[in-house]
């Protein structure tokens, strides 16, 4: 059972879409404050179905959108069990014959029998599903990653999605080494773009590889019965792990909020060695290396925005 997405409140806002060459130049200059080695180029997207990315489709082009579904208010202070959504609703909702969807959110608790992280990675083409989405749950203080079956296309509570047709084409390739700033990889990109573009709001989606180093990541444990009311309480509840490269992280970022109560950045990673979770920041700034592929989204869809909101749990 899942909520029917087309019956939920939806708002849409256009995003500012500067040429990729311009964004590459802005990032090449700005990221030097954050990383010692910076190379940002506009390239033909490599085939992302190949190792190490193993995404459900090869490219990040064609009908690009961001979607922000639900939000932390459905998780805390107490979980709302009915907030379950289906990725298979998205093609019809967006009037797309095929949709390649990657992103970060909460996994389908009715399937997992527990709260869990979700790393969305799915291609839906004329109703045919290629499901490469992983979930990560925590058991006895150990994160456990598993791939969802084709028949399980739901997620819960919140999701930050990049949606496109998966077509080949030009993308931003962001390659950086050795972190010298205090912000994480995505936060660094977001800050540089926000500083440059100001009130013009951009949205990017895509995937990045933590090629070298380790990262601090959390995995949500099962729901609690006592309300969580502060950032401190949520950090006591979440389980944090230091996870090792190579990690593949999918998600979105936006440089502004549009008063839509948006999650401004959200990336979840999976791996081929069993680790996965919500990316916070690398713990090895001296040796860290990131390689990311991103594209701009034309607009953002805000689906099922919580009526009563708060600022807890946005990190
Ligand atoms: Zn997350």
TrEMBL record:
InterPro entries: C11orf54_DUF1907 (IPR015021). It holds the Pfam family DUF1907. Residues 26-303 form the DUF1907 domain. Its main location: nucleus. The keyword Heme does not apply. It is found in: Nucleus. GO terms for cellular component: nucleus. The keyword Ion transport does not apply. Keywords: Hydrolase, Metal-binding, Nucleus, Zinc. GO terms for molecular function: hydrolase activity, acting on ester bonds; zinc ion binding. Monomer. This is DUF1907 domain-containing protein. The lineage of its organism: Eukaryota, Metazoa, Ecdysozoa, Arthropoda, Hexapoda.
């Amino acid at each position: 059972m899942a909520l029917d997405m087309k019956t939920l409140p939806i708002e849409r806002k256009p995003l500012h879409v500067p040429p990729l060459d311009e964004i590459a130049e802005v990032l090449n200059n700005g990221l030097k404050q954050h990383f010692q080695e910076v190379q940002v180029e506009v390239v033909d997207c490599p085939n992302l179905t190949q190792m190490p990315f193993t995404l459900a489709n090869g490219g990040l082009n064609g009908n690009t959108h961001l979607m922000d579904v639900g939000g932390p208010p459905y998780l805390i202070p107490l979980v709302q069990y009915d907030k379950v959504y289906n990725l298979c609703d998205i093609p019809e909702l967006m009037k797309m014959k095929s949709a390649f969807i990657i992103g970060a959110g909460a996994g389908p608790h009715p399937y997992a029998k527990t709260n869990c992280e979700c790393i969305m990675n799915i291609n839906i083409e004329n109703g045919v599903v290629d499901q490469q989405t992983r979930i990560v749950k925590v058991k006895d203080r150990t994160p456990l990653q598993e791939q969802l079956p084709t028949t399980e296309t739901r997620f819960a509570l919140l999701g930050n999605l990049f949606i496109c047709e998966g077509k080949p084409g030009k993308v931003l390739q962001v390659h950086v080494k050795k972190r010298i700033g205090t912000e994480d990889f995505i936060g660094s990109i977001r800050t540089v773009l926000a500083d440059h573009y100001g009130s013009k709001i951009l949205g990017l989606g895509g995937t990045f590889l933590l090629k070298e180093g380790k990262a601090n990541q959390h995995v949500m444990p099962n729901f609690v019965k006592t309300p969580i009311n502060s950032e401190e309480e949520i950090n006591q509840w979440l389980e944090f792990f230091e996870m090792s490269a190579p990690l593949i992280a999918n998600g979105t970022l936006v440089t502004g909020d549009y008063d839509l109560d948006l999650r401004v950045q959200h990336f979840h990673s999976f791996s081929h060695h069993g680790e996965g979770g919500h990316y916070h920041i690398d713990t090895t700034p001296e040796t860290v290396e990131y390689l990311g592929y991103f594209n701009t989204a034309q607009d953002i869809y805000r689906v099922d925005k919580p009526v009563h909101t708060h600022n807890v749990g946005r990190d």
